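Sequence only, no structure available. Ideas?
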Amino acid sequence: MSEDDPKARLQRLEARIAAAKHADKPKSHTDEHYSQAQLAWRMVIELVAGLGIGFGIGYGLDSLFGTLPIFLVLFTLLGLAAGIKTMLRSAQEIGADKRGADAPQDEKRD
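Reply:
I predicted one. Tokens follow.
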């Protein structure tokens, strides 16, 4: 073996270990790849949940009172409105998050 400085050998070893760790690191999927699909599914689920809950309440009240189409239609429409309102709230949250994330980048460009 050669008479190298132990500190220099240690630094070379640390550099090789760091390079090996960096090479073995799996390539991460970007969140942007899945975010649009996740957002779309979230909105669809919120809308369908609102419709389903409204339908269930309306059907339950109609079967209880014996007035089949009245409460069913009324609560289904209310469920639709609630689902749309929840979808819009989700879209505003995502928009606010993206605007908040874009703001520091705009400041760096100036």
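Residues 68-109 form the longest helix (42 residues).
Hope that gets you unstuck.
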